[in-house]
Amino acid sequence: MSDTMKTLTILLPARNEVNGLGVVVDMIPEDELRKLGWNYRVVLVDGYSTDGTVNLAKKLGITVYDQRGGLGKGMGLRQAFEHYLESGDDALVMLDPDGTYNPKDMPRLLQHMEQGEYDVVIGSRLRGKMDDGAMGRVNYVGNHILTWSAVALYRKFISDLCTGFWVFRREAIAKMELNSISFEIEAEMYTACCHNKMKIGEVPIRYHTRIGTAKLGSIHDGVRIFRKLFVRRFFRRPVN
Q1: Closest listed residue to residue 78, CA positions, set 192, 155, 215, 161
Q2: Distance CA 115, CA 171 (A)
Q3: Which of 75, 94, 124, 192 reaches 20 to 30 Å from 181, CA-CA?
């Protein structure tokens, strides 16, 4: 264990995830994180849940930030990033609390970030293994098309643009200028990394079947994501 412990925020963006939240929190590898020198806290940004997600989070001792200004994952994450920067923590891990991502992969992503001196590391579903039925065929094809489009537009490799499992150094969050409202937020984070010449690393991960009801809509959200990629290619700063 390091003599000087580093500080980590584990960020869970949620809207009606009462069924998966407890499962995900129980799987956080506390001992392994501490052996690697990380003290962590768990934060949930709640996007107007109505199913008891907030009550459960508070029972589990999680810090809860209520999303303001309307629905949308992007809206919530941008607000959560502001809170994170105020915290002074050294790094942030972001993953969805719906059971699709395994928190036990966190140490591998954090080690990869430090050993490779990366600014950002993603957990790549498309380079890893997926449970049967974890991603529908339309979403699978759409994810590949959007990822290839991103690489073609920005000339910076990434194998899974729309993954929800990210690790950031504090400095990376501080440099990002974002205005996404919905599921295009991950694409915009990638564009911000490119514009700021950040070093992006990847770790293949296992992708599991979701606990609860999916919220991502295939075609409509895919169009939003591509539009965000295209617009930000020509505008370094966000435009409305």
Answers
A1: 192
A2: 17
A3: 124
Tokens for 185?
Answer: 């937020």
Q: What is the CATH number of domain 6-234?
A: 3.90.550.10
- What residues does each domain of the chain span? 6-234
Q: What was the pLDDT predicted at 98?
A: 95
What tens digit of pLDDT does each residue of 189-226 get?
999 999 999 999 999 999 999 987 766 666 888 999 99
pLDDT at 103: 97
Structure tokens given for 240? 């409305």
pLDDT tens-digit series, residues 174-199: 999 999 999 999 999 999 999 999 99
9: exposed, middle or buried (C-beta count within 10 Å: 0-12, 13-18, 19+)? buried
Tokens 């790549």 locate to 124
> Which pLDDT value is given to residue 216?
61
Question: What is the residue-wise DSSP string for 9-55?
Answer: EEEEEESS-HHHHHHHHHT--HHHHHHTTEEEEEEEEESS--SSHHH
